[in-house]
Amino acid sequence: MVEKSKIIVLYLSPFLLFVAVLALLNLTSPLKIGPLGILVTFGFMYVFVALTCSIFVFLCLKGVRHFYGDKRLSDRKYYAVSATIALAPILMLALNTIGQAGLKDHLLVLSFIGVICFYILKRYR
After folding, report:
1. What is the sign, positive or negative, of the torsion defined by CA atoms of 44, 48, 54, 58?
2. Residue 64, Cβ neighbours under 10 Å: how many?
3. In angstroms, rounded to a whole number, what is the distance separating the alpha carbons of residues 109 and 114?
4. Contacts (Cβ under 8 Å, ≥6 apart) of 75
5. Between 48 and 4, whose confidence is greater?
6. Rounded to whole angstroms, what are the CA distances from 78 to 11, 20, 45, 55, 86?
7. Residue 55 burial (C-beta neighbours within 10 Å; 0-12, 13-18, 19+)
């Protein structure tokens, strides 16, 4: 029963965070909210994307285990990759905020995330 409640919380958390981010973005401006509010906004956005990636990874791992029966797949490794992938939109938004959102910068962020994911996949065996 506890496992089922954890899954329900995992599925509902992104929706609640999405509503909180939308409310925060629509009700305030960066000048009124200040640096702490901007940090909270980026934090909410990161947690939203991380939870969404975690749900996707959870469903993919469940499907792979169902079809292939492979129990050697590490949950920790794939959750670390999903947390790393969740960092990409935040970095791109930060680049856009400071006016550095060129093609070269986006490719640099994507290659940075790719190298980190490659390291995680090779490190956790």
Report:
1. positive
2. 13
3. 9
4. 61
5. 48
6. 17, 27, 20, 11, 12
7. middle
Residue 67: both structure tokens together: 């079809």
Residue 23: half-sphere exposure toward Cβ, Cα within 13 Å = 8
Query: Is the model's pTM score more than 0.85?
Result: no
What lies within 8 Å, CB to CB, of 27 at 6+ separation is: none
Tokens 């990409």 correspond to what residue? 88
Residue with tokens 């999405």, as numbered in its chain: 18
pLDDT reported for residue 2:
60
Q: Which two tokens stand for residue 119?
A: 């390291």
One-letter amino acid at 16 equals L
